[in-house]
Design a protein that fits this description.
Elements: E1 2-3, H1 9-16, H2 23-42, E2 47-48, H3 49-58, H4 81-84, H5 86-102, E3 107-111, H6 117-128, E4 136-139, H7 143-156, E5 164-167, E6 175-182, E7 191-196, E8 199-208, E9 211-218, H8 222-233, E10 243-247, H9 251-261, E11 262-274, H10 276-279, E12 290-293, E13 296-298, E14 309-311, E15 314-315, H11 316-325, E16 329-335, H12 336-342, H13 345-350, H14 360-370, E17 379-386, H15 401-405
Parallel strand pairs: 3-4, 3-6, 4-5, 6-11, 11-15
Antiparallel strand pairs: 1-9, 2-8, 7-8, 7-10, 8-9, 11-17, 12-13, 12-14, 16-17
Bound molecules: S-adenosylmethionine.
């Protein structure tokens, strides 16, 4: 086993110029780090990066999404599209309305609702359009986030509370309507691999005193090896070596479980990522891991476990393959910008003009959501349907499904 070169926390702090967390947050992070080290000892000196990421994000009571701190918005670590502007959720509502119109009595299920702001704005828009779902179900893994969502809805949309139900697991019954998830797939734990000297290695997590580090070992996990064989067989050009990347082994079962409950309607997923041949591109030889702490983005997942978000981009081809294998139809794939425009973003923004002139705040929000250098191109919308043949409004101007399969 090789120990990858890895600086200490304090060294990275200085290099990355991350703000130093307050003492209580630091103590919280150290307590979680101790729990992770215990797992490493139990694992004989190392654990998969997938397990590290799972604990850093979701360890009950300690993980980034399980403990009670502000994660979203200006006071948190990052801003998601629903926080950039209510226009985002209003556009999603318009896509929901189209599907719900064809499925009377249909429901909406939102996965990973985060701050709850998307649910709030989406429900308000559906109410204004006279198109409310029978039920708005929220599956949120973090107990603290569920509490925050409830507080928000009690304060802002108390009259809609009777329609909202929180779930801890997927519903037992079949669902007719819409399943939506914004920036959830990038938060699923991934394994990290490296291609070196013609051999697939796994980058596992070990520790040296207080510091976590990468451990590179020839891959002995059949599931990872099989997944990599599938991926590499489809790539149009050989990858340079050494080449480091991630594989999301959880996305496929995740999607299959959603498919299993969707009896009729739409599954709409919005996230950042690429078709497979762009994800595993020769130039992307450092992978796509991205961490956020106090609005600084960097690539070191071992800093401040429990205090920073850790994400990996989405392989949209893998999602599409999983969906097709489970009997869903691929109904659209496009950039966030084109999806929002298809849902009527320009008209919604124009409606907020003041004295015939564009509202500057709204114009700035539209730019943030749609410009290629902001969220417009990096984020994609992908739609899967079952028993819903109508073309979806969000993909009416641009549908790039063919890019998923181009090798
Ligand atoms: C980056 S946040 C996005 C929050 C929100 N959708 C937004 O756009 O602001 C990721 C969310 O996914 C949730 N999450 C992670 N894994 C999940 C899973 N398997 N099922 C449902 N939610 C999950 C997290 O708890 C968190 O709320």
């Amino acid at each position: 086993m090789l120990q990858a070169d890895h600086s200490s926390w304090s060294g990275f702090d200085q290099e990355l110029q991350l703000p130093v967390p307050p003492a209580s947050a630091h103590a919280h992070s150290q307590a979680l780090a101790a729990l992770i080290r215990e797992q490493i000892h139990e694992g004989g000196g190392n654990i998969s990066f997938e397990r590290y990421m799972e604990m850093a994000l979701y360890a009950p009571g300690w993980g980034y999404y399980s403990a009670g701190a502000t994660r979203f918005g200006p006071d948190g670590d990052f801003i998601t599209a629903p926080q950039v502007s209510p226009l985002f959720s209003r556009c999603i509502a318009r896509q929901c309305r189209q599907v719900l119109a064809g499925i009377p009595g249909g429901d909406v299920l939102e996965l990973g609702a985060g701050s709850g702001i998307m649910a709030q704005d989406l429900l308000l828009e559906l109410e204004a359009l006279n198109a409310l779902p029978a039920n708005y179900l929220i599956l949120e893994t973090g107990a603290d986030l569920r509490r925050r969502q409830k507080e928000l809805f009690c304060a802002r949309i108390p009259h809609l509370l009777p329609r909202i139900t929180w779930l801890e697991t997927l519903p037992e019954h079949a669902l007719r309507g819409v399943i939506i998830a914004n920036e959830v797939l990038d938060a699923l734990p991934v394994v990290r691999v490296a291609l070196d000297n013609g051999t697939l290695h796994e980058l596992r997590t070990g520790h040296d005193g207080d510091d976590f580090h990468w451990l590179e070992t020839p891959c002995r996990d059949d599931q990872i090896a099989a997944a990599w064989n599938n991926i590499s067989a489809e790539l149009p050009t050989p990858l340079p070596e050494p080449y480091c990347t991630e594989i999301n082994l959880r996305a496929r079962p995740w999607l299959r479980s959603m498919s299993a409950i969707l009896q009729q309607g739409l599954m709409l997923l919005i996230d950042y990522g690429y078709p497979r041949h762009e994800y595993y591109h020769p130039q992307r030889d450092r992978g796509t891991l991205l961490c956020h702490y106090r609005h600084r983005a960097h690539e070191d997942p071992f800093i401040y476990p429990g205090l920073q978000d850790i994400t990996a981009s989405v392989d949209f081809t893998a999602l599409a393959q999983a969906a097709l294998d489970s009997g869903l139809q691929l109904a659209g794939y496009t950039s966030q910008a084109h999806f929002l425009i298809g849902c009527g973003l320009a008209e919604l923004a124009d409606a907020q003009a003041e004295n015939g002139a564009p509202n500057p705040v709204v114009s700035a929000q539209v730019k943030h959501l749609t410009l290629p250098g902001e969220m417009g191109e990096r984020f994609k919308a992908i739609a899967f349907t079952r028993d819903f043949p109508n073309p979806l409004v969000g993909f009416q101007f641009m549908d790039q499904q063919n890019r998923l399969w181009r090798g």
